[in-house]
Design brief:
By secondary structure, the protein is of the alpha/beta class. The chain has helices at residues 3-26, 33-59, 63-68, 72-98, 103-126, 133-167, 201-208, 223-232, 236-239, 254-261, 291-295, 299-307, 314-330, 354-358, 367-375, 392-422, 455-458, 484-491, 581-591, 604-612; strands at 176-182, 211-217, 264-269, 286-287, 335-341, 429-434, 440-441, 447-448, 462-465, 473-480, 517-522, 529-534, 537-542, 555-559. The chain is 46% helix and 12% strand. A hairpin with a 2-residue loop joins strand 12 (529-534) and strand 13 (537-542). Helix 2 (33-59) packs antiparallel against helix 6 (133-167) and helix 13 packs parallel to helix 16. The N and C termini lie far apart (92 Å). The structure holds zinc ion.
């Protein structure tokens, strides 16, 4: 065989073999199965071979390459290094361009080290017979692939047996449960919540077939406490998470309950603070984490996926979710899947054709500043000077980028939902779609989701769909993300599992109390920020001292009916209005269960502040 041809084929074989093995070992082998593994390997092999063959056809006869590759072994090395460098350089560029999770760098390093290790191993094994390097190396690679493929097959069998054993506990029709958290999506930017741009046609369709809560609020303004409230049905002051502490093991999450009942529980989250890092994954059988979405596919696909899909997660996540649901159906399992997708989280990338549609009539005067704000890695901007010099159209284009992220995620959701529908799985799944918090897009001179508990950061979507038990309708009562926990458990006839300290209400059960108060909080060692909505009024109490520009006074009171933008603080008026919110909040703060392991004291200080304001009786 021509030396450069055999060398390039050998280099390709080694690299694709090592890469595929690495993917299997790191990405949670669940949805692979031997067939997909071999297919992946073949495609990867083909792409790398095509690249190297082209390279060699063009350059193999040049003097430099001839000098560098005098022996067959050196031919192989040269080819291998070229394709390895090209691959890694592309990946580094892509990871650096749009990753905000350091974990991808770690995986990249591990990937590179692993490939190096396999290469050295193969070279070492062939050193005894340098003349047959090609045949012997190929044989070792094929053996490695067969070994990994076989392991994959055995693992899948074992998993299938475990899933069907667990599902034997179920009697009658029990749905799968999909908890879909659209991280950082504020409800008023979804078309089903009345947004003028058609940002979410696919979610709209699902909402039309289920229950849409028009006025739903997150229990917190950011990811860890917001998620934990969804998973436990408790407000932040009770579950104690301020982002710096893990979710304690003794808190009972919906996952743990469903796991005990026989559900197979799988987590996939694109936001690294919405999973293992916060101990949110307790009760999950399989934590596919943040790695899976971009590491499901080998390098050439990842490049394709980053460049062409402009992928920041949800495309691959939904593809994986689809495979998992299909697999579960085939094996008679009952799945509880938690999916977090983070497109709407900063930085806001531009997705077409949506962005062009949303900005068609705009005249953007300061594109550099808009780009800075759009791409900034500072997640929170509370400095109004950063908005100086921006026109309304500039701000509208910033919002259009955020909207295009939502539309892109919705498109991927639509593909997934259609695949689920085609297979008849969608109607056998209880879908809960919500968000952990909203986002400021210039309101109150703020971007991101800092602890200013105004409505842009608290109003989130809440949609439930399960045609067997949920009639299509819209409810307008104020509801909270803490209601998800009791609603899901009630619907699955697991009322007995809801402990008395769960603070949410069953949205499908009795009529919600008319005088219901909704609470949201960002607790912190300084005391935190709390909001209380009751009737049409909203009280925000700030016990932290570091946001004086927004809180010249400790408390703000708004009439949401006449002032939905929360611009006119009624407590600034010379005559403080009568209101029922202060005593209510003070009694609530008084009732907070302060966890002994929480580094936070609440209650007494809060009460003193409230009394000083004349709130408390
Ligand atoms: Zn979040």
């Amino acid at each position: 065989m021509i030396p450069w041809l055999s060398a390039s084929l050998l280099a390709t074989t080694v690299l694709s073999c090592a890469e595929c093995t690495f993917i299997i070992l790191t990405s949670g082998r669940f949805w692979f199965g031997p067939a997909l593994f071999f297919k992946t390997w073949l495609i990867y092999f083909g792409l790398n071979a095509a690249f190297l063959l082209t390279f060699n056809a063009l350059f193999a006869r040049t003097a430099l390459v001839q000098r560098l590759a005098k022996t067959q072994r050196r031919h192989f090395f040269l080819n291998f290094i070229i394709v390895w460098i090209v691959d890694s350089a592309l990946l580094v560029t892509l990871v650096a361009r749009d990753s905000y999770a350091g974990s991808e760098y770690l995986l990249l390093a591990l990937n590179t080290a692993f490939i190096g290790f396999v290469t050295l191993l193969i070279l070492r094994l062939t050193v005894a017979a340098p003349k047959d390097i090609f045949k012997i190396s190929m044989a070792w690679c094929l053996l490695l692939i067969l070994a990994v493929g076989s392991l994959e097959w055995v693992a899948e069998r074992k998993l299938a047996a475990a899933v069907s054993r667990r599902s034997a506990a179920f009697k009658g029709d029990v749905p799968h449960v999909l908890l879909l958290i659209l991280d950082t999506v504020r409800s008023d930017h979804l078309s089903c919540y009345g947004y003028p741009f058609k940002t979410s046609p696919n979610l709209d369709q699902l909402a039309q077939e289920g229950l849409l809560c028009r006025n739903s609020y997150s229990a917190s303004n950011w990811t860890p406490p917001g998620h934990i409230s969804i998973f436990t049905g408790k407000y932040p002051a009770q579950h104690g998470n301020n982002g710096n502490v893990h979710m304690p093991d003794d808190l009972v999450s919906v996952t743990e309950i469903l796991n005990q009942q026989g559900y197979f529980c799988i987590a996939m989250y694109n936001n690294p603070t919405a999973g293992r890092g916060m101990n949110l994954t307790q009760g999950f059988d399989l934590d596919l984490g943040v790695f899976s979405h971009s590491w499901i596919l080998p390098a050439p696909f990842r490049i394709w996926y980053k460049l062409v899909w402009r992928g920041s997660g949800s495309r691959a996540t939904f593809l994986a979710a689809e495979r998992i649901f299909t697999w579960m159906e085939k094996h008679g399992g009952h799945l509880f899947m938690y999916v977090n997708i983070t497109e709407a989280h900063a930085p806001y990338r531009i997705h077409e054709p949506y962005f062009s549609q949303y900005t068609a009539n705009l005249k953007i005067s300061n594109p550099a500043r808009v780009r800075y704000l759009r791409m900034t890695r500072d997640l929170i901007i509370e400095d109004s000077s950063r908005f100086a010099g921006l026109s309304n159209d500039d701000l509208a284009s910033l919002r259009a980028a955020y909207d295009s992220e939502i539309a892109y995620a919705d498109r991927n959701l639509g593909r997934f939902a259609q695949a689920m529908r085609d297979q008849g799985i969608l109607d056998r799944t209880l879908l809960v779609a919500t968000s952990d918090h909203g986002e400021f897009l210039g309101e109150h001179a703020t971007l991101g989701h800092p602890e200013l508990l105004f409505n842009p950061v608290l109003q989130v979507p809440l949609i439930l769909r399960y045609p067997d038990r949920i009639a299509p309708r819209i409810i307008t009562e104020n509801v909270s993300t803490v209601d998800i926990f009791p609603t899901v458990l009630n619907l699955l006839d697991l009322q007995s599992q809801i402990s008395s300290d769960v603070q949410g209400f069953d949205l499908l059960g009795m009529k919600l109390p008319a005088d219901r108060a909704l609470l949201s909080a960002n607790i912190s060692p300084e005391g935190g920020c709390y909001s209380l909505i009751k009737g049409g009024r909203k009280l925000i109490v700030n016990q932290d001292n570091f946001l004086p520009q927004y809180f010249p006074v400790d408390s703000l009171l708004f009439d949401l009916n006449s002032d939905p933008g929360e611009l006119s603080n009624l407590l600034d008026a010379s005559t403080p209005p009568e209101n029922e919110l202060g005593p209510f909040l003070s009694s609530w703060l008084n009732d907070i269960t302060v966890r002994p392991d929480m580094p936070i004291r609440m209650g007494e200080d809060a009460l003193v502040n409230l009394r000083a304001l004349g709130y408390s009786h």
